[in-house]
Amino acid sequence: MQFKSDTISRNAAWQKTITLLMLGGMVFAGCQPKAPEHTSVNLQTPGIKYTSYKGTTGQRTPVTLPDSSRVILNSASELQVPENYGQGNRAVILDGDAFFSVTPATDTFTVTSDKLRATVLGTSFKMRSFASQHGATVYLLTGKIRVGKSYHSATDNQPEILERGQMILANNEIDLMEKETYHPEELETWLSDTLHITNANPMVLGRVLEEWFGVEIEMKGDASRAPVITDARFYHATLDEVLRNIGEQQHFKYKISDNKAVITF
């Protein structure tokens, strides 16, 4: 989330700030992410054609793969599927945020991004890894999964095995990958597409929307007088629908472009 210098004060605890930076979801003015060294294009196998699926900004896009595995692409995410998928090879490339429900098979299923590689036989998990951001995450919901770095690390190339309730936090700028725990109910809520916002000032709202929709939020103007959103629920709502409703309550205007929303108070 990006804040202009004349807007909202940043008083979050240092530990929470580090976590958000690891997730790649917060960008401060003057600290834009470096251009990625590896993109989804050069992760492709030479000589193989790929079909590209792209998510629409501010909403989710369902994709069904040839083996009936299901993918939910979040906002402005891209999934690349090779023409030989399912022919002894179930490997896809992700640049973005997506949930995978993998059909069990004898062949492993692999998702590769510029930072991480996840390998399973049949399970469900969520990966967030944008090439434009240094942070990445993997949340396991069911089954087991092996997650490792997709690039060569000078310090540690050992993969981790995750079970339900476990996740990976990674950051390729500082060459970090750690196994942590989370509450699976949070991912199940995300899957139900029921967004519940409680006790949210503009800063909290921005973080929630970034994580939920996989977008960057930039705030301009003076948000200090904006009322706190005490309780709001949205069912299968797009980013535009959420911002239109909240904007009437917190008195701001907004503009959505590409994978970014600019909120002006």
TrEMBL record:
PROSITE patterns: PROKAR_LIPOPROTEIN. Residues 56-145 form the FecR protein domain. Transmembrane segments: none annotated. Gene3D superfamilies: 2.60.120.1440, 3.55.50.30. Residues 207-263 form the Protein FecR C-terminal domain. It comes from the Bacteria. InterPro entries: FecR, FecR_C, Ferrdict_sens_TM. PANTHER family: PERIPLASMIC SIGNAL SENSOR AND SIGMA FACTOR ACTIVATOR FECR-RELATED, PROTEIN FECR. This is FecR domain-containing protein. It comes from Chitinophaga hostae.
